[in-house]
Design goal:
Layout (H helix, E strand, L loop, with lengths): L24 E5 L3 E5 L6 E2 L5 E2 L4 E2 L9 E2 L5 E2 L1 E5 L4 E8 L5 E4 L13 H4 L13 E7 L8 H5 L1 E11 L8 E10 L7 E4 L17 H7 L7 E5 L12 E4 L1 E3 L3 E2 L5 E2 L9 E9 L10 E5 L6 E3 L1 H11 L2 E3 L4 E4 L1 H10 L3 E6 L8 E5 L6 E3 L8 E4 L1 E3 L7 E2 L7 E6 L4 E7 L9 E4 L13 E2 L27 H8 L1
Parallel strand pairs: 9-14, 10-13, 21-30, 22-29, 33-34
Antiparallel strand pairs: 1-2, 1-16, 2-3, 4-5, 6-7, 8-9, 8-12, 10-14, 11-12, 12-13, 15-16, 15-31, 17-33, 18-32, 19-32, 20-21, 20-25, 22-30, 23-24, 24-28, 25-26, 27-28, 31-32
Length: about 475
């Protein structure tokens, strides 16, 4: 199997200013696309298709049901358009992938495939129906190989095609000739919108293919190399949806703190944090020793050392299923855990030696999830904890982003992690992240050159229609620097 080339480790952070060119647009995606010019004082709503903003819902056009999908969630998915003519499909967010992954129609073909496969896998993409598809053959996905042999063997049918944000008619930006992978593997049950700005290298490092984010920046669609994301929480208020902001962050969605995390020296693990402790609401310690762990929303679960998993088993009465390698929860145990309602606090710091950290607290409901085909034959409740075999597998997956707000600034090589806040109908407050040495040309004072965590200030919360996160953008030179 051919593997996509990965970039070498860097020994010093890649930091550098980029010049802002042309009209800056920043994009907020919360299952609706919002596009705004950075020169304008307020954001512009674009085609909020079938969106009930007061109730913070986004419905399928064909079924009038909430888009909450996945076989280990439910999770909040995002609509994109792929190919010519454009095909609607839905994806999750990957902080690790450098390209767009969509489930191919072949992913719902074969024996023992459930009849609702196309619906549950986000409406697969038919490569052969796209006149703009330029094929590059099968290649290894090559981003989660440290998590085991299944991930290491996963590959996709790579090529280049047109990709747009939002549903047809929503008015979101569309880019031509972007790297796309068609998936058949069940390890990634739903496709991914990759937010990592490093380029894809197929044969060597001499022909880097720009990421979707770098193309957005090069085409003057977003102001900076940054993004914000929170995964949504089906157990909060009116089942709060996920939020992705490209080109800024929503100041109303999180509590500010004073901690800034520098990028890790290994650029394939940029978003590494020091996890100092995990503490139960009764004072229980569930992490015997602090660890360095990667924030990676490509996977859903939290991967911890065996000693920590044993502590979780003791606290929650969990039983590990050797066959599925999952912590399955029966009805009796589920009722007990709901009654106990133990909360967990994760304490993060830039390094394990740092004394100043960030606390992210989770109710039990954040771990009260369901797993279904093909991981199990029938839908069952489970606790999203996974036993890690070694320290390269320590991961804070998508479940962590239910209660955390992540902002990543590739221009400054740092990021922030903040506690998500919850207030029904709170007004949103979106803020631009500008390149270094740039000023907000709107004159509104809304521009910022810092990741939001550096200012200690309580923020308002919002579960309004558009939940904002971070801004994503990347300069062409930055894309090359990160990938070579």
């Amino acid at each position: 199997m051919r593997q996509i080339w990965t970039a070498p480790k860097r020994t010093t952070p890649d930091v550098g200013p980029h010049a802002a060119a042309g009209l800056w647009l920043w994009i907020t995606i919360c299952l609706v696309i919002r596009v705004a010019a950075a020169t304008a004082p307020t954001a512009l709503d674009v085609a909020p298709i079938l969106s009930d903003r007061d109730m913070n819902t986004f419905t399928r056009r064909e079924t009038d049901r909430l888009i909450r999908e996945g076989n280990d969630g439910p999770w909040s998915t995002f609509p994109i358009l792929v190919g010519s003519p454009a095909q609607d499909t839905r994806v999750l967010i990957s902080t690790a992938s450098t390209s767009t992954w969509v489930v191919a129609v072949q992913g719902c073909q074969g024996s023992n495939i459930p009849s609702n496969c196309s619906t549950t896998r986000g409406s697969p993409f038919n490569i052969s129906s796209s006149t703009s598809w330029q094929d590059n053959g099968p290649w290894g996905l090559n981003i989660e190989s440290n998590l085991g042999t299944n991930y290491a063997a996963d590959e996709g049918q790579f090529g280049w095609d047109t990709v747009g944000l939002g549903f047809q008619g929503s008015g979101g930006p569309t880019l031509n000739h972007t790297v796309v992978a068609g998936l058949q593997t069940m390890d990634y049950y739903i496709g991914m919108l990759g937010l990592n700005p490093r380029p894809t290298n197929f044969s060597d490092f001499n022909h880097p293919q720009p990421s979707y984010l770098s193309l957005l920046y090069e085409n003057s669609k977003i102001p900076s190399l940054s993004y914000s994301y929170t995964a949504g929480a089906q157990y909060r208020l009116n089942k709060v949806l996920g939020s992705l902001t490209l080109g800024g962050y929503d100041d109303s969605l999180f509590v500010h703190n004073s901690v800034t995390f520098p990028f890790y020296y290994d650029q394939s693990r940029d978003l590494t944090v020091g996890l100092k402790s995990i503490t139960g609401s009764g004072g229980e310690s569930l992490l015997p020793t602090g660890i360095l762990t990667l924030i990676d929303t490509t996977v859903s679960q939290i991967w911890l050392p065996l000693e920590a998993c044993t502590a979780f088993e003791s606290t929650f009465g969990l039983v590990y299923d050797e066959t599925t390698e999952l912590y399955l929860v029966n009805d009796t145990q589920h009722a007990t855990l709901q009654k106990q309602n133990t909360s967990l606090t994760f304490t993060l710091a830039a390094t394990l030696a740092d004394t100043v950290g960030v606390n992210i607290t989770f109710p039990y409901a954040a771990f009260d999830l369901e797993v279904s085909y093909p991981l199990v034959n029938t839908t069952q409740r489970y606790f999203p904890l996974h036993r890690a075999d070694n320290d390269t597998q320590y991961t804070l997956g998508r479940v962590f982003l239910q209660e955390a707000y992540l902002t990543v600034d590739y221009g400054r090589s740092n990021f922030s992690v903040s506690q998500r806040t919850w207030e029904l109908n709170a007004p949103k407050h979106t803020v631009n992240i500008l390149p270094q040495n740039a000023t907000d040309s709107s004159g509104t004072g809304n521009g910022t050159g810092t990741v939001p965590a550096v200012t200690a200030k309580a923020a308002k919360t919002s579960i309004g229609a558009i939940v904002g996160g971070i801004i994503a953008g990347i300069a062409a030179i930055a894309a090359l620097a990160f990938g070579i």
